Amino acid sequence: MQKIASFQVDHNLLTPGIYVSRVDFSDIVTYDLRFKTPNAGDYLDPAAAHTIEHLFATAVRCGPLGASTVYFGPMGCLTGFYLIFKGVSHADAIREIRRIVQWMTDFSGTIPGSEKKECGNYRFHNLEQARREAAAFGAVIQNWTESDLLYPGD
C-alpha cells in the first residue's frame, strides 16, 4: 500500500508553523497548522484541542472565507490541525488564520457548540489551555509568509 502524502513528510524536521500539506484539483488546498513539534513530548491537551476545533471551525465558517472553507479538524497525533480551503490564495489563508488565532487568544465566553445537544463530548473542553495554545501559535505565525509554507526539506 502506498504512503499517503502526510506520512511522506519528514516529521523529524517539522516545527510549528503553517504549511501546505497538499493541493487537489489546483484550487483545493490543505493547510497543516502545526502547533507542536512532532515527537518532542509536548502535545496538545486533548480537551484544549477539542476547544480549538470548536472555536476555529466556528470562526472560519462564520468569517469572510466561510463559503470557501471545506474542513477544519484536529490531527490524531495532537500536534496540530488541518484546514482546507477552496479557491483561496495563500496570502488570504495566512491572513485569515492569523485573524482567527488572535480571536481565539482573546476569546472569553461560552464555547460555540458546547451544549449537550450540540456536541458528542460536551464536557470535554479546556478554554484556558486552548487560549494559551492559540497565543503560542500566534507568536510563531506572526510574520509567516507564503515563502514559509513549504515543509522543511522540500
Overall 3D shape: globular
Overall SS class: alpha+beta
Low-confidence stretches: none
Work out the helicity level: 25-40%
Give me the side-by-side strand order of the main sheet: 1-2-4-3
**Averaged pLDDT, please?**
97
Number of strands: 4
Number of helices: 3
CATH class: Alpha Beta
Series of H and E elements: EEHEEHH
The biggest beta sheet is recorded as: 4 strands, antiparallel
- Ends apart, CA distance between termini: 23 Å
Structure description:
With 154 residues, the protein is of the alpha+beta class. The protein has one domain: S-ribosylhomocysteinase (LuxS) (Gyrase A, domain 2, 2-Layer Sandwich), CATH 3.30.1360. 32% of the residues lie in helices and 18% in strands. The chain contains 3 helices and 4 strands; from the N terminus they run ββαββαα. It has a 4-stranded antiparallel beta sheet. Strand 1 and strand 2 form a beta hairpin. Helix 1 crosses helix 2 and helix 2 packs antiparallel against helix 3. The radius of gyration is 15 Å and the shape is globular. The mean pLDDT is 97.
